[in-house]
Amino acid sequence: MSVTGTPATGVPVTGTSVTEAVHAAGGMAGGLLLPWPDTDGEPFWQYALRGELRVQACADCGLRRFPPRPACPRCHSFADEWRPTSGRGRIWSFVVAHPPLLPAYAEQAPYPVAVVELDDDPTIRLVGTLTPSVRRPDAPWNAVPVSRLRIGAPVQAVYQILAPGVAVPRWALTTP
Amino acid sequence: MLKDRTAIVGIGQTRFAKTLDEPEKTLACRAVLAALDDAGIDPAEVDALASYTMEETDEVELAKSIGAGDITFFSRTGFGGGGSCATVAHLAMAVATGQASVGVAWRSRKRGSGVRPWTNTSVQLPTPAQWTRPFGLLRPADEIAMLARRYMHEYGATRDHLFNVALACRNRANQNPAAVMYDRPLTREMYMDARWISEPLCLYDNCLETDGALACVVVSAERARDCRQRAVYIHSAAQGLPAQHHGMVNYWNDDPLTGPAWTAARHLWKTADLGPQDVDTAQIYDAFTPLIPLSLEGYGFCGRGEGAAYTEGGALELGGRLPINTAGGGLSEGYVHGFNLINEGVRQLRGSSTSQVPDAATCLVTAGEGVPTSALLLRN
Ligand SMILES: [Zn+2]
């Protein structure tokens, strides 16, 4: 665990690590790849399991950074904290994946995948699948018609449990 | 400075095909021995080796099989196709600094008949795969398609621009009997009707899957004058890993569309007597069509955002402003991690290309854009 010090808000993450849960599941769930966290990424996945989208920030100079890494590229501090975000963002770009794909992915293809820039900090961008509504975190990956997608469309993070102890953020289309 | 102190004096390659029967190690040996024979240099004189970290025939296996002498320099460059030109650059540095005298760079790959790396689910590299693969962004084509759509959105690039790239490569392959796509012309209709791989990229925006091997030989400029073939001088060379770069998933910095080409280019031109305006032909890494407009911008052939428009009016064809990938490139000759672009650059400067640019005197060769990269500026 790389959580040292106290996060700026909320309680520090504790308990069984997501990494252990992913290992227990063999890295896969229903033929889909689970996130395989490294030490730096572990807190992100722990917060995701709680339904929170947090990003790593430097505890000394405050610079947010993604993906998580051991040191601050600006001031070189190793002290970090995990800052909450609003979970709101906009589609920066997207693809629609068609076969050839791994079998469990091919079953859902063609499916869109987006890169979303966060409203809190547009240089923090997250990859994710899409769902038509915040009420449908478990919707199939191909539930959003491609015709509804456009760069700049507003989205909100929702969380899908993929395996015991493992959740991933997805992006629900919202109305501006 | 490296400037013209070393030269490529031999090139060799196997056949390219979807499936070759011989193993990668055999293909590697064949390509290396062919390159040495082309140079007129005895394999026992080889004392430097360079390849990619992804190369599976290692130095020990290669050296003992070709009958190399004592090796005093060997290096590997990472990041897949980003390492192609770096292999030659490292040999040039080794020879120029006296660490070795005869260097061989090579790449052997059975990608056509072998497995595609992205299908391996056990190699879940934690960083950065944890931020992309669980979300269905599985393949290099998906990762680049994401940047491609953003590029099209920001600069008004269209599928027709990407088609211009695919067509130029295919037209050159149709003139090159060694190309996998030699007898397979491409039309705009075929391109526009092709199946998607990862929208906005279709089948023809993706490189081939090829079995094959290539090699080249690097010696000092003095030694080059005594070799069998016309010397092709390494005028300048560069590698590029930009600040806050993230590889093919370059989504997490201020400007994801400014890739490693920009970094490599700055160093390449800084150490050269020439500029982009002096380049007669370019062999530009083309695992995916959008890498061409991005590279044209990075290497300074046009301004930021102008790479797509640059491809208009036959600019990339023979007789155009900048004929590219004159043997067909990764899109249509064969995809061997970009090494075939190096050998074609050498042929252009020897005057022996199947799509010869008249009086070609300078050739830019680039490695994979979108990953830590490398480039060579060759002259004759
Ligand atoms: Zn800092």
Automatic annotation (TrEMBL), chain B:
Entry-linked Pfam families: Thiolase_C_1
InterPro entries: Thiolase (IPR002155), Thiolase-like (IPR016039), Thiolase_C_2 (IPR055140)
CDD domains cross-referenced by the UniProt entry: SCP-x_thiolase
Superkingdom of origin: Bacteria
Sequence ranges assigned to domain Thiolase C-terminal in this UniProt record: 254-372
NCBIfam families: PRK07855.1
Name of the protein in question: Lipid-transfer protein
Organism field: Streptacidiphilus cavernicola
